[in-house]
């Protein structure tokens, strides 16, 4: 079986998901450092600790709009395509889903709240543990996967 991975694409004249090495690219370096830390530090023991810490639900209780507001100054270091606050990203995602799927209000809501877990960073959690497209836990990376680092 052959799997084709499309690492970058263009839309509206802008190139997205560009992972070609470029040390002068500030955003790419930010993303590289994020995934480097995630791959090196995400362990079963770490996940067990985080389950104990976060599944007690003792950090805060707040309405969704307040949680979204917490993200008004949060910049996701794992995303090579976004260099703006997560609150803006949340509303943009919800609005694009509303336009694409006007008959599915549940999807608009899902787009709005899909990144709310990132509020954990407010209580000191490092971004490599909170954000990212995938989470690796004590798995050796396959040789076919090309990493940025």
From TrEMBL:
It comes from Ancylostoma caninum. Binds 2 iron ions per subunit. Pfam families: MIOX. It catalyses: myo-inositol + O2 = D-glucuronate + H2O + H(+). One of its GO terms (molecular function) is iron ion binding. It comes from the Eukaryota. The keyword Flavoprotein does not apply. Transmembrane segments: none annotated. This is Inositol oxygenase. GO terms for biological process: inositol catabolic process. It is found in: Cytoplasm. Its cofactor is Fe cation. Its EC number is 1.13.99.1. Fe cation binds at residues 89, 114-115. InterPro entries: Inositol_oxygenase. GO terms for cellular component: cytoplasm. The keyword Nucleotide-binding does not apply. Belongs to the myo-inositol oxygenase family. Keywords: Cytoplasm, Iron, Metal-binding, Oxidoreductase. Pathway: Polyol metabolism; myo-inositol degradation into D-glucuronate; D-glucuronate from myo-inositol: step 1/1. Its main location: cytoplasm.
